[in-house]
Amino acid sequence: MPSAILVPLAVAIYYAAGGRLSIALAIGVIGYIVIYESKKLKGTTGQKTVVGSEDEHNHEHTHTHKHKHKEGGCGKLCTCKNKGLKPKKTLSALKNKKGFGQKKATNGSEKDMAVDFTSTFARPTKVSSADREEPAKKKRVPKIIKSKGAARGIPKTTWTKAPTSLLDSNIIIFYSSLTGASQRSSQYLYDNLCAIGDLKNKPQLLNLDEVADLDDYFIKTPDLENLVYCLVLPSYDVDSPIDYFLETLEDTYQDFRIDKYPLKKLMGFTVLGLGDSESWPEKFCYQAKKTDYWLGKLGGRRIFPVGEICMKTGGDLKVHEWISLFTDALKDDEPILYEYIDSDNEEDSDNSEASEKSQDTLVDVEDMGKMMSSSKEPETTSETKQMVAKNSPTYKSLTKQGYTVVGSHSGVKICRWTKSALRGRGSCYKFAFYGIRSHLCMETTPSLSCSNKCVFCWRHGTNPVGTNWRWQVDEPDVILEGALAGHYAKIKQMRGVPGVVAERFAEAFRVRHCALSLVGEPIFYPHINEFLSMLHEKEISSFLVCNAQHPDQLEKLTQVTQLYVSIDASTKSELKKVDRPLFRDYWERLMRCLDILRTTQSHQRTVFRLTLVKGFNMGDVSGYADFVEKAAPALIEIKGATFCGSSAGNGNPLTMQNIPFYEECQKFVVSLNEELNRRGLGYGIAAEHAHSCCILMASNQFKIDGEWHTHIDYPRYFELLRSGKPFDKLDYISKTPDWALWGSESAGFNPEDTRVRKKGKYKKLTT
């Protein structure tokens, strides 16, 4: 104890003892002994123990015990939760252990052992592949692939007899014709078959170009017994509907989801090819040969050789000769020589002996190519065709209908509303809904081909069709300049028409709007984005219409002024009936397009276009409401179909009874609006144009301060484009005029124009 404390303590004890020195000294000695013994006890009995805690982490604690513990935990006197546990051997505990780090004595029989800890935690060095000892590799021997050839005992060909007479068959005659020769030949075949008295069933005559769904005949096949297909096909140097037919057959064969031999149900087939061996010797009847090839690959049974007739040298006489031979063959019950071996394996079977002799050798690559050559389809031209070649039947048909064909796959046509606006007699519904003056609008398309065959289409199947772009591609600048030139040429033709307003005639030579909705599928054009950019550079607004069958192109689409998507039915069965799509997965494609409108293209002015056809798609509105809920379009156009005449036998059943009255369209729109509001989707009926039988619904986003703003501020739109900054559909809206609003007295007709009524009690001019 320090002296600074002992001296005052001794003085205090002395006075406490009443000044008696002996008592004070005794008390001091006793206190000193107590303090000394206490320190000694702590040094000898204080035990420092390391135990494991419940979470298995080490901790140290010190206790003073009355009893010594040689091993184990602290015992009952310990307040730690881990009492009774054996202490863990840690590095700190080992250091405190007696003899740690000292060399242990050894006798003579034992050798000293030194342990080097310097490399214990060093990173192991990599052993090079050269120093590593590897087992000897087994020598690789090329695998020899042998041709099995034809099975022994089964001939390559055999004489077979049909299970029933060919006279008991149901014969369907297909033809495709642009010039009339094939139609004439197929009609002659039909008449000759009908003249056979023993023929049990009357044959059918179908135009292959106008079949709504080829799968109904070349995958499923009609539910008729003993079916026989007769195909009368020409071969054209230009693109024709047969190209799509052949593409469909090949896709069917390559599609793993479809039965490999869907035509095995047929009793048989035959093909009659018509061509020109003098003008195109290398392409003579090549499409008929390819059809014969693919029908055989799909499991069809060839009952008569393919006919190859030159219409220039043989003509109808040779056609009649072939038909006569075919009808005689139907009456003959003699067996038919039928090949069991597929054409892909003919070369293997022919060379089976050579294969057996060369089992120990590999097949040379060049020889392998020769072996595979026989499995290829008939050698034909690989030249890429033009979609609409000049002077082709399709070209002549389109120009006769008033089109100007631009390049090889585009077209432009002046709209009847353009003519009406030039004469001051009103613009189309786009003026009432969006502010487009018809005499400033050009209607064009960069693709005359379409992937649908809609029943209400005004082309009646005369335009090309396809699911893949298989034609030559024109540059977008060529298309744009050609379309403008063609449009202006047609405007010039109006200068002598009575009633043309001079001011509007002059304005018409400066196109301000472009409706990409003429015919075909504009989004199908491979360079559609570049074409749209060129329009916008000229400050021409773009209104693009697509059929919701090309989701990949829709997702990649750049900025457009307004994006339309045709929604022509609310159910899968109705869509197939109305649009007659060429894609087999047409419904899945539609669903993908709806998702894209809600996500990738949500910033655009998206429009649902519903074309109502009575008896086809004017049923329950709930299906359309489901689509609106899924895609969330900005606007919805509902328009009654326009009757454009019927084409006998083309699968287009529309008559005037299928064209809805305006009152029926109004009733449909009111029902749809009620359903959307019942679901809380927030839409309303904004505008109408009774003259076009068209009504516009819009999202409530376009209703500002109780007034509809469906028109477009075009200068503002191009200003936003030039800025290069992202913008939304609501950034370039404009107020809808009162005369265009739903329920207005004008019903969407501009009061500045003169309305002409040519029918009924209103047969007069109305201003």
From TrEMBL:
Renumbered residue ranges of the record's region Disordered: 343-391
Flavodoxin-like domain: residues covered: 171-327
Cofactor: [4Fe-4S] cluster
Domain Radical SAM core, first and last residues per copy: 434-686
EC number: 4.1.3.44
Reaction catalysis annotation: N(1)-methylguanosine(37) in tRNA(Phe) + pyruvate + S-adenosyl-L-methionine = 4-demethylwyosine(37) in tRNA(Phe) + 5'-deoxyadenosine + L-methionine + CO2 + H2O
PROSITE patterns with a match to the protein in the record: FLAVODOXIN_LIKE, RADICAL_SAM
GO terms classed as biological process: wybutosine biosynthetic process
Biased composition range(s): Acidic residues: 343-353
Pathway: tRNA modification; wybutosine-tRNA(Phe) biosynthesis
Keywords: 4Fe-4S, Iron, Iron-sulfur, Lyase, Membrane, Metal-binding, Nucleotide-binding, S-adenosyl-L-methionine, Transmembrane, Transmembrane helix, tRNA processing
Entry coiled-coil feature ranges: none
Record-linked InterPro entries: Aldolase_TIM (IPR013785), Flavodoxin/NO_synth (IPR008254), Flavoprotein-like_sf (IPR029039), rSAM (IPR007197), rSAM_sf (IPR058240), tRNA_wybutosine-synth (IPR013917), tRNA_wybutosine-synthase (IPR034556)
Any matching Pfam family: Radical_SAM
Transmembrane spans: 12-35
Matches recorded under SUPFAM superfamilies: Flavoproteins, Radical SAM enzymes
GO molecular function: 4 iron, 4 sulfur cluster binding; FMN binding; metal ion binding; tRNA-4-demethylwyosine synthase activity
Similarity remark: Belongs to the TYW1 family.
Protein name: S-adenosyl-L-methionine-dependent tRNA 4-demethylwyosine synthase
Species this chain originates from: Cyberlindnera jadinii (strain ATCC 18201 / CBS 1600 / BCRC 20928 / JCM 3617 / NBRC 0987 / NRRL Y-1542)
